[in-house]
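Q: Mind making up any chain with structure tokens?
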Amino acid sequence: MQNLYPKHGAYFLLAILLLSNTQCIPLKTAPTIAEYRIMQGKKLNKQLSKHKLYYVFENHLEDFAFYDYLDTYHMPEDYHRYFNVPIQLGNDKFYITFMEVEAKSKTLDLFSPLANAMLNQAMGDEYFETESKIHEKYKTYIAIHVHDVNVSDCLRPNSLFRVKVLKYLSHIRKQYQNGNGYKKNLFRTQRP
């Protein structure tokens, strides 16, 4: 087959290669959370309730590290459930439920197959794959729900305890993400 652009063939191939490696169409995007976000559970993961608000932050540590952290610092003695865990903040009693959840980002790669088809046509052979692909990436989050003894959601904007609870949850998140105290305590307890 005759080259359509003899003078600019190298530029044409370079443009196709760049296009094929960089362009994807996002179908679903997992949220990027810098610090934390208060959100309805269903917007993040179908496992979570759509009627409750959750304190959500990204988990960059290994799986189940948050559970180990809570067992080490914040769980009552011999309490090994992760829902309705009683906590005391000042004179007020609350119940905290937490879980590790995943959200998925999906992208559709349409441009690579188009560029590959053009390359195949220009070269006169089937060297490159021409089927569209869906790429998936997962992000892990910690979702925490808090309610008081009257089963009122403490993360609602009109809750009397919202400020106190957010301060506590932010403290837990910072301490967990910093990891220094958590890791030191782990090493201390693992020594003979």
